[in-house]
Amino acid sequence: MHAQDKVVDPNEVVLWSDDYEGHDVISTRTFGFWMYVLSDGMLFATLFAAYGVLSYSHSYYTGPTPAQFVAPWYTFIQTMALFLSVLAYGFAMTALKSGSKAGVVNGIIASILLGGVFLGLNIHDVLRMISIGVTPETSGGLSAFYALTQVHAAHIFIGLIWMLVMLYQIMRQGFTEDTVGRLISLRMFWQFQAVMWVFIYIFVYLWGYMS
Amino acid sequence: MSHGHSDPIHHPEVQMATNRNYITGFVVSSLLMLAATILVDGHILPSFGLLLAIIGCAGIAIIAQVYFLLHIDISEHNIWNTVALVMFIPLFIITIGLTWWMFSQLYMRTMPMIPGMPGMH
After folding, report:
1. What kind and span of H or E run contains A81?
2. Neighbour tally for B68: CB within 10 Å
3. Most exposed residue of A72, A100, A146, A173, measured as fewest CB within 10 angstroms of its CB?
4. Chain B interface, best mutation among A56, A65, A73, A101, by max B CB count within 10 A
């Protein structure tokens, strides 16, 4: 009788080992969070598709087009604030390598401040556009413009809250497997917002401004 | 991929962070955004050339950020993240490209020209 012919007894069979050496919580969570980040990318892809089909000149009807209300240098300063925020978070992650709590906390605080600058500039820009009559309900093109840019801004807002939560958890719990895993997930989330911003800045702001 | 249970700080996911990579990614993408802004603000190139130039800036900046910041490479630890991204790229292209193509064809074939309304491009 061959081994594979034996009937498996469900009461005795061992399906997995509790202390399997390769069990790696941080790697598993990081990969899982990367899956989330990519599906978040699909969310942005649908909004880019909507903007793409609603950015023809007839989409704005007779209302304002991005060429009339986009300020390239203002938005460039926003870009720099976001990139510097991502850089500061990178410095926090490098400080984590040596377990330096002060380095991580300082990096995250700098990242929060610069992310706050980005969000503040965005809110100021939206208020300026609304004051000159560029509102989401004016035309399909403007609805798509606001949906895409403000969904990104909402991601930044969530990221800032997440950073505040991480500051609290680092203070209270130190660098445990849980907090370190969350810091890595937040790093991917935050860097991904910079990648999305490159698309938005080039294809929505600059392209809109030049056409 | 056995990394032990001892100290999460020693996990390769933590230890692969380097200031040099983060600074390189920052400098490369910032310079490209600066170049794109100068080109567009000054209307230095003809329209189509300008479009190609800023698409190039965006493409290189994104590759730099994905490689230097997000650590998407073919090292043993990151290969599955890279594979997942490669699998997602066709979905991004189909979602954006096919939708845009469909609607551009639809507009071209169905939209009547209304007097007083801005034309199709």
Report:
1. helix A72-97
2. 23
3. A173
4. A56
Q: Which residues of A61-75 are buried (b: 16+ CB within 10 A; e: fewer)?
A: bebbbbeebbebeeb
- Interface A:B, Cβ pairs < 8 A: 171
Q: What is the pTM of this model?
A: 0.88
Question: Position A24: which residue type?
Answer: D
**Across the interface, do A195 and B81 touch by the CB < 8 Å criterion?**
no
Give the Cα separation of B38 and B21 in Å (integer): 26
Three-state secondary structure of A158-189: HHHHHHHHHHHHHHHHCCCHHHHHHHHHHHHH
Q: What's the rounded Cα separation, in Å, for the pair A94 and B19?
A: 6
Tell me A8's DSSP state: P
Q: Name residues whose C-beta falls within 8 Å of residue B27's C-beta, 6 or more positions apart in sequence.
A: none
Q: Which pairs from A134-142 meet CB under 8 Å and 24+ separation?
A: A134/A64, A134/A69, A138/A60, A138/A63, A138/A64, A139/A59, A139/A60, A139/A61, A139/A63, A140/A54, A140/A59, A140/A60, A141/A54, A141/A55, A141/A56, A141/A59, A141/A60, A141/A63, A141/A65, A142/A60, A142/A63, A142/A64
Q: Are A66 and A208 in contact (CB under 8 A)?
A: yes
A32 reaches B (C-beta below 8 A): no
Domains and CATH numbers, chain A: 3-210 (1.20.120.80)
**What tens digit of pLDDT does each residue of A140-177 get?**
999 999 999 999 999 999 999 999 999 999 999 999 99
Domain ranges of chain B: 17-70
